[in-house]
Write a structure and sequence with these properties.
This protein is α/β, with parallel strands linked by helices. The chain has twelve helices and 18 strands. The protein binds manganese (II) ion.
């Protein structure tokens, strides 16, 4: 077992080797990256961690570093543009690339390819396959311009909550300019009077260990100080994540969120009169009829092909093509990419191909046998989306 100091030294060394162009091949980089996990001493599942203390010290280091990276992504030019405009196409050219303001990322460098990754839900087997499918380590070692954008829902449901977060944190720390992370509705929670409050509903037949924060609470229950400290650390990481991404190249402008569009509020014939700037989308002061913010709406809502059963008074409401049309013509994006729903094929298109649902955890085959014992979605054929600089949208099957 390595000491936590040595593990951190090792992680920093990878970053240093990258900066000094020491890696000749993607394979070398990949090997070094996956060794982090081995050094911490993890089995297949979270319960097999050999030394929780070392693990949490490494996680604490990574969370603090990643939160600092997130803080430094803030940009004043974007802040001004997003607060004064509602039409994203009008400001795309003036925006600073790969920066954030109001928890909204904007990308407008047309030389990049983008890869979008849907819900992972505590599944590193799919995550590993994702990184190999998009040739992540190869591309980094060859300085190819590729960015990975994760749509959120890193934890819950699957078997490897802590391990998935460890991968995600290490990726953002080592590759801050290739990895960008959005917040999903599961990447949330609060601690009030030492009690965990989940932001998702746990059904009676579900176990505590299916939920990251409850699981964490259980395994740390004998040490109150550590428990409080570790849980608030993870919450600090969740709260540092962006809610919305705009990706613009010469061909298309994409809106990327975890859930969907804001709640419609009819005013004459218009649903979105209450949204007057792009920064309004993450303005906590604007609340809907059930006291939810727009960013909460965009983390939870689902597209719907019919007008029935829209669950209008629920946090998880549905929106129709009518709502979508109005929101789209207001913001002026071309395509919305979102996660949030476990589609059997790993994706589903809506509204004449102007919205795609994407799901990236599921069955992972080796010699026609499913090797994924971490996923809660073994019925699903996981996909990722590649958005090429030529403007092409390509669905990639993790089993091809
Ligand atoms: Mn979700």
């Amino acid at each position: 077992m390595e000491s936590f100091e040595n593990i951190i030294k090792y992680i920093k060394k990878i970053k240093e080797k990258l900066n000094n162009n020491i890696y000749c091949t993607g394979a070398e980089l990949e090997k070094d990256f996956y060794k982090i996990n081995k050094l911490i001493g993890i089995g297949t599942n979270d319960v097999e961690y050999k030394n929780l203390n070392t693990l949490f010290k490494v996680q604490e280091f990574l969370i603090n570093e990643v939160c600092e990276i997130h803080k430094n992504e803030n940009d004043l030019v974007n802040k001004k543009l997003l607060s004064k405009n509602i039409n994203i196409k009008k400001i795309n050219k003036h925006i600073n690339d790969a920066k954030r303001a109001f928890d909204i990322y904007c990308f407008n460098d047309s030389n990049y390819d983008y890869v979008f990754i849907g819900d992972l839900h505590s599944d590193t087997i799919s995550l590993k396959r994702i990184l190999s499918t998009c040739k992540f380590f190869d591309n980094v070692s060859k300085h190819k311009k590729q960015r990975l954008i994760f749509l959120g829902d890193y934890v819950d449901r699957g078997k490897a909550h802590i391990k998935t977060l460890e991968f995600i944190l290490a990726l953002k720390f080592i590759f801050p300019e290739q990895i960008y992370l959005l917040k999903g509705n599961h990447d949330d929670g609060t601690m009030i009077d030492n009690q965990i409050k989940l932001c998702v509903k746990k059904e009676d037949d579900e176990k505590n260990e299916d939920y990251f924060l409850l699981y964490l609470n259980d395994i740390l229950n004998n040490d109150n100080t550590l428990r409080e400290h570790i849980i608030s650390l993870y919450l600090k990481f969740f709260n540092s994540l962006c809610n919305i991404v705009f990706v613009n190249n010469k061909m298309l402008t994409l809106l990327v969120v975890h859930g969907g569009i804001p709640r419609p509020k009819l005013d004459n014939t218009q649903y979105y009169n209450y949204v007057t700037s792009i920064s309004d989308l993450t303005n906590d002061e604007i609340k809907d009829n059930i006291n939810k913010t727009i960013k909460n709406n965009m983390c939870w809502s689902d597209p719907c092909d019919t007008k029935e059963n829209l669950r209008e008074n629920s946090g998880r409401f549905k929106f129709t093509i009518e709502h979508f049309n109005q929101f789209q013509s207001k913001i002026k994006f071309d395509l919305l990419i979102r996660g949030h729903e476990a589609e059997k094929k790993g994706y589903k298109k809506f509204f004449n191909d102007r919205l795609i649902t994407l799901f990236s955890s599921g069955i992972i085959l080796k010699n026609d046998i499913n090797i994924n014992n971490e996923t809660a979605y073994s019925e699903i054929n996981p996909k990722i989306i590649k958005f090429n600089k030529s403007g092409q949208i390509v669905l990639l099957d993790l089993n091809n």
